[in-house]
Design a protein that fits this description.
Elements lengths: L2 E5 L4 H9 L7 E4 L10 H10 L4 E4 L13 H22 L2 E7 L22 H14 L5 E6 L2 E2 L6 H11 L2 E5 L3 E2 L2 E2 H11 L10 E4 L5 E2 H11 L5 E5 L19 H6 L7 H14 L4
Parallel strand pairs: 1-2, 1-3, 3-4, 4-5, 5-10, 6-9, 7-12
Antiparallel strand pairs: 8-11
The protein binds NADP nicotinamide-adenine-dinucleotide phosphate (NAP).
NADP nicotinamide-adenine-dinucleotide phosphate (NAP) binds next to helix 1, helix 3 and strand 4.
């Protein structure tokens, strides 16, 4: 049975893997938090491997604070690039495979057509640069590896847009949400299932990049409106432009990922974001504490 180390096991995506782990009894997942495996310290990977050997690394660890990265670029690169370098060096030495995650924010969002895996990245914020630098590094690795580019990650866990809207709608009578950024939300639970159902297939590593996101393009405003509609929440929602809602980091306007490669290569039927959102809200309802 292959063993996979999950780094960043207590982050949003790490918890999505934990939530579906028992559906995949043929893979043993070793979950670690930053205290056990700090990817910026190679020796912590070695120590973990010595006590619990693994065949591959699913890297859910990362620096993910898009706005803070504008002022903490060094820290972002330390985790998203140097950390990944340690994973890659270690994987090469032990002949392990790597699954990594990157972001639609490697693109500038000026293209009106969906981004394919081979389109040239051109990040417009520091977080995007750190993710792109990480991609470039891993691309050179001699170990088997693939990077999933994902966008607008949501789930019942951690901090994400769905949970923020649920929280704000309980606190405020009116909320304002930007209506001029377009993208495809990614449901972490569906993503984790996709990775675990395919990770042991020989063809999985034929590509070094896969885009993955739910079917259908939306805006943050339409996404928020749908959350409120499903919850039958009467909180007022108003749309605004990006210019009216300034943030430290620039956001791409149209970072829509084209997912045909993964759909064709792994014969996937990716659900719509509305379908995934309903399932996510159901999970949240069933366990208010998560
Ligand atoms: N969230 C999104 O919308 C989105 C969109 C596109 C791509 N992605 C990518 O998807 C991946 C997972 O994102 P996420 O939303 O799950 O992020 P997250 O919730 O912020 O989780 C990241 C985890 O990494 C851990 N971590 C930070 N530095 C570490 C280190 N040096 N060693 C080990 N662990 C470390 C964090 O621990 P602490 O909490 O203790 O710091 C946290 O548990 C990331 O690669 C991210 O760039 C996310």
């Amino acid at each position: 049975m292959p063993n996979y180390l999950i780094t960043g096991g207590e982050g949003q995506l790490g918890k999505c893997f934990a939530a579906v782990a028992e559906e995949f009894p043929k893979n043993k997942l070793i979950f670690t938090n930053q205290n056990e495996v700090d990817i910026t310290h190679l020796e912590t990977l070695k120590k973990c491997f010595d006590s619990r050997p693994f065949d591959g690394i699913i890297n859910c660890a990362g620096y993910t604070q898009v706005d803070f990265a504008e002022e903490e670029y060094e820290k972002a690169n330390k985790i998203n690039v140097e950390g990944l370098r340690n994973i890659s060096v270690f994987a090469e030495e032990k002949e392990l495979c790597i699954v990594n995650f990157s972001s639609d924010y490697v693109f500038d969002g000026t293209s009106m057509s969906p981004y394919k895996e081979n389109d040239k990245p051109n990040p417009i914020n520091k977080y995007g640069y750190s993710k792109y630098n990480g991609e470039l590094l891993l691309k050179k690795s001699s170990c088997q590896h693939t990077t999933f580019r994902i966008s607008w990650l949501f789930s019942p866990f951690g901090e994400n847009f769905v949970k923020t809207i649920l929280k704000l709608s309980k606190l405020k009578k009116t909320i304002q949400v930007v209506n001029d950024q377009h993208g495809r939300p990614t449901y972490g639970i569906d993503l984790a299932r996709t990775v675990l159902s395919n990770i042991s297939k020989p063809d999985f590593y034929n590509f070094n990049f896969y885009n993955y996101a739910m079917q259908g393009t939306t805006t943050w405003f339409d996404f928020a409106s749908k959350i409120l509609a499903i919850k039958k929440n009467t909180c007022q929602i108003k749309s605004c432009s990006t210019a009216e809602y300034p943030t430290l980091a620039k956001r791409p306007k149209h970072s829509v990922l084209d997912t045909k490669r993964i759909e064709n290569h792994l014969s996937l039927n990716i659900p719509s974001w509305e379908d995934s959102l309903k399932r996510c809200l159901k999970r949240i309802d069933n366990n208010e504490k998560i």
